[in-house]
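Hi Prof. W.,

I finally got the DNA-binding transcriptional LysR family regulator prediction working! I wasn't sure whether to trim anything, so I left the full sequence exactly as given:
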Amino acid sequence: MDRLDDMALFARVAETRSFTVAAAKLGLSRSAASRRMTDLEARLGARLLNRTTRRISLTEAGETYLVRVQQILSDVDEADRSVASLQAAPRGVLKVAAPMSFGMKHLGPAIADFLSAFPDIEVEMDLNDRFVDLVDEGYDVAVRIGQLKDSSLVAKRICPARLVHAASPAYLTRRGVPRAPEDLTQHDCLIYTNMPQGTQWPFRATPLTPGAARGGNHDMDVATRLIKVNARLRANNGDVLLEAACAGVGIVALPTFICGKALAEGRVVPILQEWAVSRSTISAVFPANRHLSSKVRVFVDFLADRFHPNPYWDVGLKLG
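And this is what came out:
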């Protein structure tokens, strides 16, 4: 007989403490079940069960073997369920967390199309720029931007995120165009307060030469330096900062998924492009469960197909 069948029988006997009951549950005769347990003990070279006419109990070896057998049987069941879930229609409530600006500008329209494609899924979406704990707060998946630090989460890359320093034409006419990062010390800057560096803006240690290609889909691993800038306005929302930049209040550093339309319309113009550490990543992250639900899988795949590899908000932008 197959070893897994023997393990399943042993686990049943250990659970019920009865050959008769265990055999009935598995469609065997009592004598066949007893004979298989005897053969299993002979193969292992150890007695697993103490048998008397009145009761069955586990030996010390049996207790140890049972722990491993239960884990193996659980793993086999999990493997079967994971394959079955690929064929099952995704359904249920999907709890999603996402940054405010990205959620309103891009995820909202995507969610509408996703719900049309998957009518048995309901979405509960929380738009907030704070860092959420997926496990403690019960989220199925979150959209995150930038470097991921939590190794307990699985991340799937959705698309690149490109950072641009920009200001309105009116501001640059009035205050001059910065030619190097150090020039920013003489300017008013608009600070996104949820960024860990605050008023310390990162730039390349040396400028990118004209025509040179940036490294891959991100260049966060290049040599950098920090420039302390003057904060004229601080806010925890990128759209607020963009409106201030368009009004000529100061210079802003924003991803193109926020400022791409304003750049295309000329309401702000890019600066210091050759110095910018510009590329990061937008990812979908979810807890590292051994069994990924079909509703999470189809949602993550949907986002990757919709936005990757060249997001629509970057199309047509003339950036270095």
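The domain at 92-160+281-314 is CATH 3.40.190.10 (D-Maltodextrin-Binding Protein; domain 2). Does that look reasonable to you?

Thanks,
D.
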